[in-house]
Amino acid sequence: MQDCRMRKIVGVCGCFAVAILALATETRASTQQAASGVAKVVGTVQAISGKTLTVIPDSGASTSVSIEDATKLLQIEPGKTDLKEATPLQFSDLQTGDRVLVRGILADDGKTIRAASLIAVKKAALAEKQAKERAEWQRGVGGLVKSVDAAAGTATITTNGVSANKEVLVRFTSDTILRRYASDSTRFDSAKVAPVSEIHVADQLRARGTRAAGGAEFDAVEIVSGTFRSIAGLVTSSEASSSTVVVQDLASKAPVTLKITAESQMRKLPAQFAEGIAARLRNQANGAATPASGNGQAVPAQQGAAQAPANSPQGGAQGGQQSGQQGARGAGAGADFQQMIARMPAATLSDLQKGDAVMVVTTQGSGKDPLTVITLLDGVEAILRASPKGGQDMILSPWSLGGGEPTGN
User: Fold this and answer.
1) Residues 342-361: tens digit of each pLDDT
2) Mean pLDDT, residues 350-373 taken together
3) Which of 50, 59, 102, 225 could covalently link to 205 via disulfide, CB atoms 3.0 to 4.6 Å apart?
């Protein structure tokens, strides 16, 4: 399960937008042979034996690479695209886990590449970049797209707390990386670079960059967006062998088959937490003010949630109980609901029982295969009773891209 989500996003797979890929965007990370016998491969070094490398491309079978005395070896920092910034690399410094772009010719066996040049991005440099980007995604902003002004270079998103909506103006420039999730995947490494015209109203959008003072504006370095589906309904069945669950959609009254993957985030809301949210929704519907703490002050979001994180030794029971009792109160003060959800007890497919009320964010799907679960919340009966539609829109949508960096690695 992910606690970061968007959990594995990462070494954030934006790290693969490194120089070696920029230099070979026309490749599909697999060996290609032209009539002249020229070949190249982009991938990760899996093994080193003597002067022979085994390179695993991003797709396809492994490739043997022979390093010769005349082979030009260079290394470059992640994200750099100008070979003028590359530096010489000693073969002895090459390690498993390094990312490489190899160019050369095929040997007589028709399989091995005799390398003329090799450009590497070191594993340690990638890890450092990944850690930095992970932190940036966690400090980023995410929500539903309200409007897009391509000419002005802005997108307005609604990032929801439980008590009130908040709009953030996300600014982007020609240097901002814009990515789009595939219709059947939430893996960040499956997201493709796309023009701003691909960002639509009601899309989910997440950005990393710099937040302006006050939080009303955000200067984006990278944006990832996608169209996702929200479902609220009752579990009718589950199948462990296929990792699927069937939910009766309350809106369409039709059964929907959902696929659970290793990247799916599943959480079980403690009853007190769900009841607290339901009370807030009822208060809003009635125009009531947000309840305050005993001293008349709004209760801060972190007050209860930080006492015993779910991954601490006390994690499951104590963290869930405190989050249920106090986190729901803090939600009314405009808390980051994504962070509170991340502290909830994790759930598994076997925990889902027939008749359970769930709220789910899934991929848009292709119409053929089951929809893939991005995030699933169990234990939401009270929320749906209080606001069958409003609760889903208000609570589920803002964190469908995850509480931290985008998913997938």
Assistant:
1) 778 889 999 999 999 999 98
2) 87
3) 225
Q: Phi/psi zone of residue 372: left (φ > 0), alpha (ψ -120 to 50 degrees), beta?
A: beta
DSSP 262-298: TT-EEEE--HHHHHHHHHHHHHHHTTPPPP--TTSSP
- Contact between residue 257 and residue 362 where contact means Cβ atoms under 8 Å apart: no
Residues 6+ apart with CB under 8 A from 129: 11, 15, 78, 79
Q: Tell me: pLDDT of 132 over 50.
A: yes
Q: Is 301 left (phi over 0), alpha (psi -120 to 50) or beta?
A: alpha
Cα 408 to Cα 2: distance, rounded to the nearest angstrom: 10
How many CB atoms neighbour CB 145 within 10 A?
19
Helix (H) or strand (E) holding 88: strand 87-88
pTM, 2 dp: 0.57
Q: Which of 105, 106, 130, 117 is nearest to 18 (CA)?
A: 130
Nearest to 137 by CA among 403, 408, 409: 403
* Residues counted in the chain: 409
Cβ atoms of residues 47 and 65 within 8 Å: no
Residue closest to 193 by CA, chosen among 207, 179, 174: 179
| 233 or 392, greater pLDDT | 233
Q: Tell me how far CA of residue 319 lies from CA of 65, 345, 346, 359, in angstroms.
A: 51, 8, 11, 22
DSSP, collapsed to helix, strand or coil, labels residue 181 as coil
Confidence of residue 295 (pLDDT cuts 50, 70, 90): very low
Residue 285 has pLDDT above 80, yes or no: no
Provide the mean pLDDT of the chain. 76
Strands of 263-409 (E only): list them: 265-268, 357-363, 371-378
